[in-house]
Amino acid sequence: MTDTKPPETRESGTAPAVALHTGTSDPRTLIMRNLRQSGIYVAFVVIVGLFAILTDGVSLSPGNITNILLQYSYILVLAIGMVILIIGGHIDLSVGSVVALTGAVSAVLVIQQGMPWWVGVVAAITVGLAVGVWHGFWVAYVGMPAFIVTLAGMLLFRGLTLQVLDNISLSPFPAEYQKIANGFLNGLLGGNGYDAFTLIIGAVAVAGIAVSGWRTRAARVRYEQSVESFPLFVLRILLVGAVIMYFAWQLAHARGLPIVLIILAVLVIAYGMVTRRTVFGRQVYAIGGNLSAAQLSGVKVKSVNFWMFVNMGFLAGVAGVIYSSRSNGAQPAAGNMFELDAIAAAFIGGAAVAGGVGTVVGAMVGGLIMAVMSNGMQLMGIDQSVQSVVKGLVLLLAVAFDIYNKRRVGANR
Amino acid sequence: MTDVLLEMRDITKTFPGVKALEDVSIAVRRGAIHAICGENGAGKSTLMKVLSGVYPTGSYTGEIVFDGKPVHFNGIRDSESQGIVIIHQELALVPYLSIAENIFLGNERRGTGGLIDWNRANAEAASLLKSVGLDENPTSPVIQLGVGKQQLVEIAKALSKEVKLLILDEPTAALNDIDSAHLLDLLRRLRDRGITCIMISHKLNEITAIADSTTVIRDGRTVETLEMKSSDSALDAPSQNATQARIIRGMVGRDIDSFYPDRESHAGDEVFRIEDWTAWHPTQDRKVVDGANLNVRAGEVVGIAGLMGAGRTELAMSVFGRSYGRDVSGRIFMHGKEVRARSVAEAIRNGIAYATEDRKRYGLNLIADVCRNISAAALGKLARGGWVNGNEEIKIAEQSRRDMNIKTSNVMATVGTLSGGNQQKVVLSKWLFTDPDVLILDEPTRGIDVGAKYEIYTIINKLVAQGKAVIVISSELPELLGICDRIYTLSAGRITGELPVREATQENLMALMTKEKELAG
């Protein structure tokens, strides 16, 4: 094994050549890499287009777009927490039950006890946090697999929901509470048949994306990193801007800017930053990517795992508020199977089953793919059973694509 | 005495870029205990894998004659059907199955209708256990047994297959003295029953005590085969020593050429010292590190030499925030002051860094990019209020890429796509970014090519020139002799010697590395 040849520094001699060749100039690698990163967005556009054609444009009508958002907002909120857990190598099967429990607590306080609407919101989120602490304790400090802990939680919190509600549904919430999920910001700045405020917010969002994209790009250029070519960059910004403005235009022609959309946007931006730019976020990726290496790098694995679950609990509480507000009450069976939709969203959005890979934005697109498909199939009057089959197949193929991709990367090693 | 059971002739096995075995020949007499020794990586295990069919016929050249017939194996099942059974160092028992179930796993005793006849199986198991001297109920689960007894179960399992040639890979590496003695005793009894045995071992006193002949392998070639005994009387002490010395010479006898960059040594004040360091195996009842003392000074490279299983990595990892073992005890001093390093974070804060021997499993996040791997152990230095300064991070990574000459087009490349040498440079960059006072490098050049090795040595020299203290753990003695100022030897968890490099030779190091605890107990 130990060949003792003279110190021939063959490798170092060819360093510049190597550096040139493994650059991003090779079109094949460029396409493959981009496909891997953007495959999900392409799929999203194709699916949206497909259903637009199949439903004669109904699926893209202003009213329907608003509907999709309102109907799936709580799944998207859950998917944010779920993708973070999946990146860290965990899972949470209990979020459906937690949505039910937090909504139930809120309903009992607001509807039964007649407390103000905000007490319900605070109570629901507190209960969600407590659930997160509970799960985090068992997973992080006792060292149990999240699958088991949250499977137990799924039963446990469903049972507590029934206890809290005494097996009956509670309804209705006061108007302020209902507004959380059903309200709109409309007419703040007037407009002729459309809501100017929504359009302005849309324009601000586009400007924000353009500026932050430009700044990131400039910084990378300054640090001599490879960036996409300038025309490609402009094209991407224009494309994203066009989609957002179209979207805002449609919303402005319906009922205006949904409050839920604002909540969702704040969460997505905040968590996007947390996962990419904070020490905590980095450590989540490090733990999911290689637990032993993270441990030997001084990452406090237990604490990070714990806070991941607390965070999931918080978001489940938020989702519980939105869902109870949307359904205007609390039901014992609320939130059933939500966990599966949230998990599917994360995986379709490119999260890896083994952990270490995934993005919040990806999970959002994954969730929207599910949402657009369900909604489109409903519009087409397709039977529930067929819908379920299609959704199942999409999840299967998305993860198969991920595994296929990883094998390719592995083969190149 | 010319009855040869096994003959392997001119075996050559090549892996891409490496000749693991070259014209190795070995002849094993029927009814003998034949020892094979050699350094880590000399090719012992490869030879046994060729023999047992793990590397099938056609993937090597040469000839194997077993029991008078040429044989061609295409897998373990083939060789087992001929009566060749290999017992690996890592035992292959299923912990929650019973002893009998383990013994007959894959070889079940069937009764009517293809169902397993448990009465027969348990009865046969009981008699097999008796023949290996193990007094246990065949229905008790294997996990309740200690390692020594598990080893006996493995042997019982081998006997159940009507074994003609039993191969044991480092059978006593994980055993305490009593269990080792017991095992050697059993091997003698098996020999008396006519079972031929090949034993791979580092422990020379065991070899001289039990083997009838010994083949020494070095760098994939047979060096020589020694006959150990003229009659059945054991060798006396002086000739035992002479034989051991000859084996050691055979194991290490190779030239060191000018493969290591020059360095003037300027050792300064003591930076790091451990006293009475002891760590227990996490699940078994034995000390893996036993009362170790060592120190290293600023600007000094100190080597730790030891054979596989001597406790080198365990020593380093237990020091590094107690990442290994249980009931770790002992004291750590940095710059003469005692420090606490009960977690990895604490160890890093106190200026200790440990670069693992297994970079893929413990060192790197292979699916993340170069940049994030480099910052992973000191992310706090790049963050303010929990927010990471990504641009600064890239700058640091770029700087490491240039300093270390990491060959990658940019620091956003996935680490898993880099070559072994460049991955190792990423690991080093990561630890240097923590700005340590003492760096423990565990097998820093394992699995990387010659040119990259030279670069790693140059980096080590640069570090000590900056006044860092470096500890290098290595299986390759020439490497330690080439780069260290001082070398400690480790054997069975104990520091058995400490030599300045000018007094050290491969022979005297190997003698210290194979030194057992004084045979008083």
TrEMBL record, chain A:
Pfam families: BPD_transp_2
One GO MF term attached to the UniProt entry: transmembrane transporter activity
Bilayer topology annotation: Multi-pass membrane protein
Membrane listed as a keyword: yes
Recorded GO CC terms: plasma membrane
Transmembrane spans: 38-55, 67-86, 93-111, 117-139, 146-165, 196-214, 226-249, 255-274, 304-323, 343-373
Keywords, ordered alphabetically: Cell inner membrane, Cell membrane, Membrane, Sugar transport, Transmembrane, Transmembrane helix, Transport
Membrane is among the record's keywords: yes
Coiled coil: none
Subcellular compartments: Cell membrane
Source taxon at top rank: Bacteria
Primary subcellular site in the record, as a coarse category: membrane
InterPro entries in alphabetical order: ABC_transp_permease
NCBIfam families: GguB (NF040906)
Role of this protein: Part of the binding-protein-dependent transport system for D-xylose. Probably responsible for the translocation of the substrate across the membrane.
Record protein name field: Xylose transport system permease protein XylH
Organism: Asanoa hainanensis
Automatic annotation (TrEMBL), chain B:
InterPro entries in the cross-refs: AAA+_ATPase (IPR003593), ABC_carbohydrate_import_ATPase (IPR050107), ABC_transporter-like_ATP-bd (IPR003439), ABC_transporter-like_CS (IPR017871), L-arabinose_ABC_transporter (IPR053466), P-loop_NTPase (IPR027417)
Keywords for this protein: ATP-binding, Cell membrane, Membrane, Nucleotide-binding, Repeat, Sugar transport, Translocase, Transport
Compartments in which it is found: Cell membrane
Span of domain ABC transporter: 6-244, 272-517
SMART domains given in the database record: AAA
Alphabetical list of CDD domains matching this protein: ABC_Carb_Monos_I (cd03216), ABC_Carb_Monos_II (cd03215)
One Gene Ontology cellular component annotation held by this UniProt entry: plasma membrane
Predominant location: membrane
A Pfam entry, by short name: ABC_tran
Membrane-protein topology: Peripheral membrane protein
GO MF terms, alphabetically ordered: ATP binding; ATP hydrolysis activity
PROSITE patterns for the chain: ABC_TRANSPORTER_1, ABC_TRANSPORTER_2
NCBIfam families, per database record: GguA
Protein name: Putative multiple sugar transport system ATP-binding protein
Protein source organism: Asanoa hainanensis
Lineage per the UniProt record: Bacteria, Bacillati, Actinomycetota, Actinomycetes, Micromonosporales
